[in-house]
Target: Polyprenyl synthetase family protein
Amino acid sequence: MDAAVLTAARPRGDVETLARLAKGDMAAVDALILDRMQSQVPVIPLLAEHIVSAGGKRLRPLLTIAAARAVGATEVENALKLAASVEFIHTATLLHDDVVDGSERRRGKVAAHLIWGSATSVLVGDFLFARAFELMVETGAIRALGILAQASGVIAQGEVLQLTRAHDLNLDQETYLRIISAKTAELFAAAAEAGAVGVGADERTTAALRSYGLNLGLAFQLADDALDYGGSSEALGKNAGDDFREGKVTLPLLLAVARTRGREDAFWDRTINGNQRTEDDFRRARELIIGTGAVSATLDAAGDYADAAKAALKVLPRGDWRSALESLADFAVSRAS
Amino acid sequence: MDAAVLTAARPRGDVETLARLAKGDMAAVDALILDRMQSQVPVIPLLAEHIVSAGGKRLRPLLTIAAARAVGATEVENALKLAASVEFIHTATLLHDDVVDGSERRRGKVAAHLIWGSATSVLVGDFLFARAFELMVETGAIRALGILAQASGVIAQGEVLQLTRAHDLNLDQETYLRIISAKTAELFAAAAEAGAVGVGADERTTAALRSYGLNLGLAFQLADDALDYGGSSEALGKNAGDDFREGKVTLPLLLAVARTRGREDAFWDRTINGNQRTEDDFRRARELIIGTGAVSATLDAAGDYADAAKAALKVLPRGDWRSALESLADFAVSRAS
Model:
């Protein structure tokens, strides 16, 4: 059964339009990243290159650039540095996350800690985090720096919260949203906000871009959670079913557990609380999660956040950048169907 | 054999004079630390409190306060916040260090990662690091922020360098000094420099305080290294012999290896490269290290750095604060004899 049949038609959207517009800026950001991850200690650039070059879509620094450009900035030197800082912070959290979760793969490659060891991964994460702040200091944009410092604190708190509650079937939806807001959406929000602040945008525009980023981040994360049960591994960029295999409680699972209360409690208790999960269990979980409409409900929620993200952009001047950001919000959800 | 008999008499010095002068300021710093380590996620303040309250002498924030006061500042609000930031950065590196080294004890207590797990320790370290930068942003002292951001990067690089070379008998003295400069002395230097910059001291004074901190940090670290072979566990605050037990290469060991070349190669090769170390081996290593004068040579080097630290203070106005800082430099070495 495909998740696509369960969701109402939505605009498809894409990320390429924005990537094309930002191509020159992003090349400059990549050059900055490469330059600032160097160190006299040979293993540092080696490990950093392993994860940075795998790259993916660089959505977060793209948001910083897009925010600066969308408010009409032509002098984007600060935004480039802030964008590189955002990617450094993101990479540092990925390195630490993979150590914390014992993940085996990242961005389609073997996770760094399996090659260089957990110790080095932790320390190179620290190094990249420090480099992020050094770059921000160069901009002199102390307010942008404050936004990203605060976001870093929120992310760490979200990760600790997830760590302590990730396998808890009694997790309520509100706490779950709090976790993904902190762990994922906060950096999207801060990336966009910092881009606007870094080029001197006014309060109203800055707040709008923060709201766009936050809602976009929630849409992306919820669509990811849905894809893990309703999508193909290709669409997901990692193996479908990984959340279940790791016993990770996400919104589709929480909804399905609630919707099968009294009927499947033993199954959920054994597989999630009891940590006994076979591939047959995954197929059964997937059936229950799709069958109860939990995947489509999750995608509906993602769609609502994508709509809120687009609505936030209305205070921005119309133009190519704003349209591309709108399309990115649609893409967050449509890639999952 | 006691290391004391091997070293020339030096002024004894103490830390209490400075601690007494800074008592009021440090109480304010402690209150700030307690306030800013709070979080809605319950395990975070719990873990932070475990390591922060064990506290020790709080040498690094003490340096920030002393630097600000020694240059004559009376308005020290910024210095208080910078001092708390310095302690947060230090605490974050301790948490990560203990995970990286698998250390069992810290500040006389069970290491946090053995109570709450490595994952939580890594993430709470990240949280404290982020909080440090949030506090610095509040001061608006972007130059001080830059100094501490850079120091954080240097520390991480020093730790990676140590990780890759710590058990290498071919480590040369220069690389060893590079490691302890980065890993230990840099934060002492940055703490003092940031304190001066945060209250608007001139370039010459700021550079002098940085130099004081750097040399003081080297003196402390070398005296620590000497104490591990020549001192008592009480003077050290940890078990004497821990460096040897962990196969960690420090200056006394490097000197002894060089001074017993052709005679004890097999012993060093088995114990350090071969990772076979009994308590008898430690006693033998200790005899060789003291017998060849390697402990006293290390203490002499520490003494030279302490003297350089004191000399750097000459550009500062005479007074209680300067005297107390001089006494602290002497204490760095005299506590080891």
